[in-house]
Amino acid sequence: MAKNVHVAEVQEMLKPKNVYIPLASTNSKYYDLFVEVGETVLMGQKIAERYGEQRTPIFSSVSGTVESIVAMEFFSGILVDHLVIKNDKKDDEVEYEAMTGLETAKNIQNFIAEKGIRGLDQSGLYTRFDFSRTIKHVFINAVFQNQAFMGIENDLYFDEMEEVIDGMQLLKKASLSEVYVLVDHDAHTTKFKEAGFNVIKVKPKVSKAWAYDAIKKVVGVVPFNLMDAGVLFTPIHSAKAVHDAVRLGKPVTHTRLVMMCSDSKDSTALDVKVGTHFNDILHHVNKEFKEEMAIFTGSVLNGFTMKTNNFSISEHISSIGIETKQIEENVCVKCGLCNDICPVGILPQNIMDAELRMVEERLYEYNLKSCIECGLCSYTCPSEINVLEWVRRAKRRVSRG
Ligand code: SF4
Ligand code: SF4
């Protein structure tokens, strides 16, 4: 999968026949539904509220008619209810209302929460917006997350720079803390500096935990949950979402998605409605689902392997990888490369071994919580073993115990 691909245009795919909006999340399957089957809804209408650590409003991404509720795969094989809305393809919208009143931290925090913005893309190091915790630093990743694999025309990601910068200023006010931007282009460095942000120039490399290293330089010790170190880390499109919420009163109804195929010439960037079915996207890129396809959502290095093709695009998914050739995991040859590359110095091979043998007490000897899920252990493995997946399983076992 690790190939360099160049993408110079974004295709629009904003008229799916139906959308399938996830009503639950990985940490709670409960929700309140505010619409009924047969009811007509508008784009941007609040249709439900998700439980979990925080109650999160859910909005329709299209105008149309509520068809049904179906169980579909969410992350890592969890089945959750999805609301099916038949799209009338008119995009009739509710009347949005921008934030009023003073731009105090509390006012901005409350307003973006009302619009369901909890931080987009929460895989790996990324955190959600949790303003109930003390935030000391906000880090914004202005490097496209799969940059090391894909050459994306940077303008495709920075064509709304003024809105992005305004969103970053709002995040600064909401968190009452300093903002650091990770960039890999000189042109952007100047713009962010002029806007008063701290800029950290990085060189994104596949074999380096470059975001982790950049954050570590500022905060010192970096725990897996960055919030424990007072760090909010989010991709740059979250800043655009904050701008849209506060200035225009808009929730997120569509997202930019990069499809990376092992057959690299098929890789593409798409703007899609939240809730678009994965099969519709496959169809759009002229592909058919095959049993032997390996599908993962999220970054190439640390994305989640999906068990089926029956899932839709939530606002947290910014890339999908498709491996069409079957990956045969070989046996661990105990080369130690995964242990050597691990940026936090835990021993992924030993963790995998203990998990494989189900020696639970040994798992407590390893500092599992420190794993930042960077995926470098899997990347480096000559036997193509998904070492990170074993470490994730071990983490789940220990947290259950
Ligand atoms: S165990 Fe693997 S995924 Fe976790 S921090 Fe180490 S290299 Fe990264
Ligand atoms: S890199 Fe792969 S083969 Fe080498 S020790 Fe780690 S798991 Fe085993």
Keyphrases for this structure?
single chain, 401 residues, Rossmann fold, 3 domains, six-stranded mixed beta sheet, four-stranded antiparallel beta sheet, 11 helices, binds iron/sulfur cluster
Description:
The longest helix is centred in the middle third of the chain and has 15 residues, at 161-175. α1 crosses α2 (161-175), α2 crosses α5 (236-248) and α8 crosses α11 (387-400). A hairpin with a 5-residue loop joins β6 (46-50) and β7. This protein starts with a strand and ends with a helix. The chain is 25% helix and 23% strand. The protein has 401 residues and is of the alpha/beta class. The protein has three domains: 5-96 and 251-323, no CATH class; 105-248, Rossmann fold (3-Layer(aba) Sandwich); 337-400, no CATH class. The protein contains eleven helices and 19 strands. The relative contact order is 0.15. The strands form five sheets. A six-stranded mixed beta sheet has the order 2-16-15-19-17-18, with no helix packed on it. Strands 3-9-8-5 form a four-stranded antiparallel beta sheet, with no helix packed on it. One iron/sulfur cluster binds at residues 341-344, 346, 348, 371-377, 387-388, 391. One iron/sulfur cluster is lined by residues 341-344, 346, 348, 371-377, 387-388, 391.
How many discrete structural domains? 3
User: What is the helix content?
Assistant: 25-40%
Write down how many β-strands occur, each being a DSSP E stretch of 2 or more residues.
19
Give the end-to-end Cα distance, rounded to a whole number of Å: 35 Å
> Please, what is the average pLDDT?
86
Rg, rounded, reads 21 Å
- Alpha-beta content class: alpha/beta
Which ions and ligands are bound to the chains? iron/sulfur cluster
Judging from the principal axes of the Cα atoms, what is the shape? globular
- What is the N-to-C order of secondary-structure elements (H for helix, E for strand)? EEEEEEEEEHEEHEHEHEHEEHEEEHHHHH
> Which sheet architecture does the biggest sheet show?
6 strands, mixed
Q: Count the DSSP helices.
A: 11
**Oligomeric form:** single chain
The fraction of residues assigned to DSSP E strands is 15-25%
Question: Uncertain segments of ≥5 residues (pLDDT<50)?
Answer: none
The strands making up the biggest β-sheet line up spatially as: 2-16-15-19-17-18
